Amino acid sequence: MEPRLKIAIQKSGRLQEDSLRLLRECGIRVDDGKDQLRAQARNFPLDLLYLRNSDIPQYIEDGVAHAGILGENTYLEKQKDIRSVIFLGFAKCRLSVAVSKATEYPGVQWLQGKRIATSYPNSLRAFLEKNHIEAEIHDISGSVEIAPNIGLADAICDLVSSGSTLFQNGLEEKEVVLRSEANLYANKQLDPTINGILDKLIFRIQSVLEARQHRYLLMNAPVGSVERITQILPGMKSPTVMPLAVEGWCSIHTVIPEARFWDIIDELKASGAQGILITPIEKMIL
Ligand code: AMP
Questions:
Q1: Which of 12, 46, 129, 211 sits between 20 and 30 A of 242, alpha carbons compared?
Q2: Cβ distance 89 to 46 under 8 Å?
Q3: What is residue 33's predicted lDDT score, i.e. its pLDDT?
């Protein structure tokens, strides 16, 4: 049988949808794992293993899965001997300490001697040690945010992104323990054939992520403005400039980082650009 790369992804939960979307944008056709633990890609030598998020680091270390998608927070908490292969840019969050809004919080020393509820005891312990704080860690597996309200803890240490869950529970974020986003992690001793398949996957992921961060920009401009517009554009190389049927006008095409578009749009308009179009890019190979 042909060797196949076994990738673990979350069986259910926040990371699953973005993980599957990424693989699909990489041109890999897979089922969504409903009622199954394993799915075969039909057009790439890859099998998906749908597993519990917190079990994935161990499965990768053991080689049951060759690689897997998980948040750095889980990787740092589980302390397994696996390697990060590529940052994936989704599931951005932070692990933070929060206390009741009513608390007078002068600084980290307030945590001295307090009870802190968390599902991330190792990460919290490391943070407390670094800050020379001795506190009682209550390791609970879910609904951490209600712990202060029911008298179980004085503070919590949990994942935050928008902060709305904290807000709804009358809590305020006070200390950031770590920042996290989804990563692809891999076993440290993959055989060369499997590593080769992983490299192909990484290449595809890179081109999808590059494309997501860039936009294709088209505009019309008077020929006399081309030099000025070219200086404004942070393009890949120099932009493509093509004559229009109307005398004295041309069409300018280039690729720009998504984040820069709104910074340069006014300058482009002021330089005479018209009919500006910006479109997504599907894949980008540098
Ligand atoms: P869950 O689906 O709640 O088991 O979370 C799975 C993973 O998604 C976590 O290990 C984090 O990496 C990430 N995550 C959890 N909560 C958040 C959040 N509020 N915002 C962004 N990512 C999160």
A1: 211
A2: no
A3: 64
